[in-house]
Amino acid sequence: MRRNVWLLAIVLVAALLGVNNTIYYFTTKKTLEDRLRHELQSVAKQIEISIELSRNGAEKYQEQIGRELRAASIATQFALNPDIEKVTNPQLVELREKLDMVDITLLKRTEDNIVLYKSSDPKELGYKTSSWKPWYQAFNQLFDEKNVTVKWGQSLTNFWTGPFEFASTDTSKINKWGYYYDGATNYIIDPYISYESRQRAYDEVTGVNRVISQTLKSNHSLLEIAVINPNTFPVGSQTTITDNGDKLKHITQEPIINGSNMYKQDDDKANVKLANESNQDVWINTTINGKHVFKLFIPVSVENKVASMVDENGNPINRYVLTLVADYQTIQDTMDKQFYNIVIIVAFVTLLSFIIVYLTMTGYRKSRDKLVGNAQETYVEEINQLFHSIRAQRHDFMNHVQTIHSLAELGKLDGLKAYTAELTGEIREMNDIINIGNPAIAALIRSKISQAESMKIQFETRFSDINQLALGVKSLDLTRMLGNLIDNAFDEVMNYPEDKRKVTVTIGQHSGFLEFSVNNMCSDLKALEGKPLFESGYSTKDAKHSGLGLAIVKSLVDRYKGIIRMTLDEPDSVTFVIKIPH
User: Fold this and answer.
1) What letter does residue 288 receive in the DSSP assignment?
2) Which of these, 82, 157, 85, 93, lies nearest to 124 by C-alpha position?
3) Helix/strand/coil (H, E, C) string of 117-165?
4) Which of 92, 117, 448, 494 could share a disulfide with 108, CB 3.0–4.6 Å?
5) Radius of gyration of the chain (CA)
6) Angle at CA 427, nearest 5°, toward 421 and 433?
7) Rounded Cα–Cα distance for residues 16 and 23 (Å)
8) Mapping DSSP to helix (H, G, I), strand (E, B) and coil, where does residue 24 land?
């Protein structure tokens, strides 16, 4: 029974450890996820600032290129005849080389169009521009007003330029064109340079893609960064068919402005739209390409609208969406390590608990066996003493009869009365002990009477209705309960003078239960108040005592569903009462 209780305690401890560690596991998981979110937000903010600085720097650099194109246009004007019919293509080739331009083209206005009329590149000749929006609108404004008011691109005095873009005449090339007209000629001067010759070197050193690349290298948990055009994502702009039959998509309307979007899913379009329209971050915890990831969508407002990012209608956008993809594996690795630690701790604690229980049970069993052995020896000895007393009375019977006869013949009535009274008391005491319905208790009482005589203790016994004790209690357990209480009482009264050494044992059988009590003198009642007297190991005596006596009594009483209580009797006695139900 006790072993089962210990095993149940171990199971409960292990279960509590498991529950506690499980809670700790998931709490740690949430903490790590929150920390990763916070780190991602911090990194995203840094990236946002870096990208904006880089993008604004690139825009400023393009403005410088625009001024370079305007200067080249003015130089071209001074070198050419103001009449386009008197300008030759070889002249434009020569100027191209001197001014370090890719090519120079002259635009002429016709009745219904504006065409590329003269050029250093023969492929440019003859193209009509009425389908080039908003370029065609800018060309007309230059011819009519000598200035451009289109809210897109870069406008200077008598000059306008758009962003780097694919060439309609050669879709494999990316160029930046400048357009100059001040009324001194009958044509627009159009020098242009390539992305390769000007912008690429800048972007490779300080551009947005460079910033993204360096950020990914320095943050191992980041898998991907992208700058997304929310107005054209995910398909991009509509394809334009050039005069040569080539398909043309505009750089300024690309859905992925910078970076990459390899970790994509069906919900990306909706999440980009939600982030853009709500102007709030959107978090996604999902699996993409077989990898558990966090994906963050961050709306970034553009203070100064630029021509390099436009919507499907060619209008500059006021916000783009920055996306970051982080590897969840960093959290999973930490959680796996934490889980293994938890398993090791639970296993170790469980093993340690089993070892402690085993050692405790072994020690308890040895202690119990020793106590049982001592109790059995005491029980046998007390039974033998009882039988010895009975045999002694029978042996002395003839002597008592002869003494009585002699006193009667001599007529010594007073002596006869005194002798028979003494003899009757001894016989009555023995008869009371014999009449106890349990031989074990009878033997115990007889043994304690002899022990009390040797210790000069006044030992009184009171019995009522105990001729037939019909209890479901082992005799050994009864003697252990009563014997421990009497021994404790003897130990206590030995601290007082002989005239105060009094112990009273009362045993009575009542309706439904057996009650016995042990009363003894105790001058220091306050020392007993509120003390754990029935706990194993606790003792009010010196260190030589084990403190097991009352704990054993309590465990035996509990086993038989009985009760034990202590009462402090004024002025200087204490009583322990035990009730055992039938």
Assistant:
1) E
2) 93
3) EEECCHHHCCCECCCCCCHHHHHHHHHHHCCCCCCCCEEECCEEECCCE
4) 117
5) 55
6) 135
7) 10
8) helix
∠ CA(402), CA(404), CA(405), 5° rounding? 65
Residue of 546, 549, 558, 551 whose CA lies nearest to 536: 551
Cβ atoms of 158 and 180 closer than 8 Å = yes
Contact 73, 218 (CB under 8 A): no
Question: Per the omega criterion (within 30 degrees of 0), is the bond before 581 cis?
Answer: no
Integer angstrom CA distances of residue 127 from 86, 105, 239: 20, 11, 19
Question: 67: part of which helix (H) or strand (E)?
Answer: helix 2-79
324: which 2 tokens?
């970051």
- Distance from CA of residue 219 to its chain's centroid? 25
316 DSSP assignment: B
Residues 481 and 496 sit within 8 Å (Cβ to Cβ): no
User: Measured on CA atoms in the order 531, 533, 535, 540, is the torsion positive or negative?
Assistant: positive
Question: With a threshold of 0.85, does the pTM exceed it?
Answer: no
Task: Say if strands 291-301 and 319-327 run parallel, antiparallel, or are unpaired.
Answer: antiparallel
Q: What is the 3-state secondary structure (H, E, C) of 354-384?
A: HHHHHHHHHHHHHHHHHHHHHHHHHHHHHHH
Structure tokens at 499: 């005239």
Q: What is the pLDDT along the chain (582 residues), one digit of tens a residue?
A: 555 655 666 666 666 666 666 676 667 667 766 776 777 777 778 777 877 777 788 788 888 999 999 999 999 999 999 999 999 999 999 999 999 999 999 999 999 999 999 999 998 899 898 888 788 999 999 999 988 988 778 899 999 998 888 777 677 788 999 999 999 999 999 999 988 877 777 777 777 888 888 888 888 888 899 999 998 888 765 555 555 655 656 777 788 888 899 998 989 999 999 999 999 999 888 999 888 888 999 998 887 766 667 777 767 788 899 999 988 776 667 666 666 666 677 667 767 777 777 777 777 667 666 655 565 565 556 555 555 555 555 555 556 566 665 666 767 677 666 666 665 555 555 555 555 656 777 778 878 888 888 899 998 888 776 655 555 567 778 888 888 899 989 988 898 899 889 999 998 888 888 888 999 888 777 777 767 677 765 665 554 545 567 888 888 888 888 998 888 877 788 889 999 887
Q: Give the three-class secondary structure for 170.
A: coil
Rounded to whole angstroms, the Cα distance separating 323 from 49 reads 14
Give the Å distances, CA to CA, from 566 to 91, 394, 523, 526, 528.
126, 41, 15, 13, 9
Distance separating alpha carbons of residues 161 and 386, to the nearest angstrom? 128
CA triple 70-74-78, angle to 5 deg: 165
Q: How far is CA 65 from the centre of its chain?
A: 56
Residue 359: CB atoms within 10 Å: 10
Alpha-carbon dihedral angle through residues 141, 128, 101, 180, given to the nearest 10 degrees: -20
Q: Position of tokens 């050029």?
A: 119
